[in-house]
Fold:
Amino acid sequence: MTSAVPPGEFEIISRYFARRSARSDVLLGIGDDAALLQVPADRRLVAAMDTIVEGVHFPAGTAARFIGHRALAVNLSDLAAMGAEPAWALLSLSLPESNPDWLQEFSSGFHDLAQRYNVALVGGDTVKGPLVITVQVLGFIEADHALTRGGARPGDFIYVSGIPGESAAGLAVIQRQLQGGTAGDVLQHRFNSPEPRVALGRTLRTLASAAMDVSDGLLGDLGKLCDASGCAAQLEMDRLPVSPSMPALFDAAAVERFALSGGDDYELLFTIAAERVPEFEALCGNLEPACTRIGRITQRDPGQSVVQCLRGGRAVTVATSGYDHFAGA
Ligand code: ADP
Ligand code: MG
Structure:
């Protein structure tokens, strides 16, 4: 379907991004100077924005469909971590060139995910420049139900959804061009198509004491949750969810490194107060994806590291840290 003339800015918007939405709360969508949106009277508006840059957040040459999916998925993950219900998105697109095939794939990846979560694309911006995609998502949460990073208290149990590390392992498969068979495909899929845990976040909003999404590595992100909550944590390494795919391609040390400090998981890390654990555990069997108890929130002790890793009940040192864009800069 390649057309001879690359579409111009306005064609790009109308051909690939302006879609009719079923949402009745979009009073005015793409096409005017700004969108007009109806926020339900009894809800709070939740807003998040994330930028992805070629060569930083995804390798150059990544299929456009995956980039479109990722740009929205990482944002929906932030809303999921708040317990919010997504509603609308804005898309700022900086493109090196106007390539109809690329745009078709990118917009399909974006719209397919948007449709699954009933998200309406209501505006954005389109400019020429390096490949950089910024998405803003807006959603709702019932007043007083927002999940934050700051609500964990000593004694709370720590859980994580899915299998942290698989996405980073998938990126390694791609970058090192490993021939990984089925396991390699599963891991690449984890990296290329992260699934935002929106339904889980909605379930947790009345159950969890704190939550965040894991984007920069489990250990580092748990540290951030502890900082926000003024607590510390004990992470039981023996409890970390075991990947059926990673050991086929990586040794035990690499698997552990991916699990503790690999990025791009977009799983939910959350805490449940001890008295609510039976209620949560009763629900657990029905949750998708499975959630695993991985430790306990403790009191902050100035003499101790914020996150203490335990193996066989004993404190161990692990040499890993989360991703920081400006570390060492
Ligand atoms: P303005 O110059 O007033 O900012 P634009 O020409 O940038 O208007 O955009 C025209 C309309 O198209 C606006 O409604 C804007 O929100 C929307 N738009 C522009 N780029 C995108 C995009 N990549 N995705 C979705 N909507 C977009
Ligand atoms: Mg504009």
